[in-house]
Amino acid sequence: MDAIEAITRRVSVPVLSGPDVTDEQIQLLVSAALRAADHAWLRPSRYLLVRGEALAQLGDVFASTLESGERTDDAVARMKSLPLRAPLIMVSVCRVIEHPKVPRDEQLLSTGAGVQNLLNVAHAIGLGAIWRTGAITQHPLVRAAFGLTEQDVIVGFIYVGTPAGKLKEPPELNPSDFVTDWKS
Ligand SMILES: Cc1cc2nc3c(=O)[nH]c(=O)nc-3n(C[C@H](O)[C@H](O)[C@H](O)COP(=O)(O)O)c2cc1C
């Protein structure tokens, strides 16, 4: 697929199925992510891959974050099922470092830009993907399960797989509505 078409027509795909995303495809997605703009080339982005049996294990971690008052059978089952919505979750992590010229926000933006590159390339090669977050990204039990340190920020859970149905149509936005000529 043409790069411009991939970028301008990409849509998120919430319902994903197998087959497994191949190691070659994952390498390509990460290569795309690593080409994001990156002030001072700090390389703040890391990806943790959750696939195979690890998906159910992550579901157990998600379920363990429920407070005792909210731990109904339905809630536990729902939490356990969340990671099973795709054959692969790429956990995007920004490892923020102290830098005299590159503040924390810029490092987070770089990792986020990398995620967008990844989504675009997934679309271009016929995969589907969706960027998800939620309160769970900051939960201490989730962070501990991934072995994160204080420097690490989970920027997103990127669910990747094969689109299970027809892709939605991207919304028609008029670029002019978002652009103004500035004059002093
Ligand atoms: C930082 C970030 C976090 C997001 N978190 C969620 C989420 O937790 N759940 C969700 O359904 N969509 C989430 N989204 C939105 C979807 O990824 C997607 O962008 C949105 O549904 C619009 O669809 P589109 O990308 O096809 O335009 C998030 C997007 C961003 C940028």
From TrEMBL:
Cofactor: FMN
Domain Nitroreductase residues, every copy: 9-161
Binding residues annotated for FMN, in chain numbering: R10, V11, S12, R35, H39, W131, R132, T133
InterPro entries in the cross-refs: NAD(P)H_nitroreductase, Nitroreductase, Nitroreductase-like, YdjA-like
Record-linked SUPFAM superfamilies: FMN-dependent nitroreductase-like (SSF55469)
Cofactor binding annotation: Binds 1 FMN per subunit.
Gene Ontology molecular function: any one: oxidoreductase activity
Gene3D superfamilies the UniProt entry points to: NADH Oxidase
Source domain of life: Bacteria
Coiled-coil zones: none
Keyword annotations from UniProtKB, A to Z: Flavoprotein, FMN, NAD, NADP, Oxidoreductase
UniProt EC number: 1.-.-.-
Matching Pfam families: Nitroreductase
Protein's recorded name: Putative NAD(P)H nitroreductase
Family from the record: Belongs to the nitroreductase family.
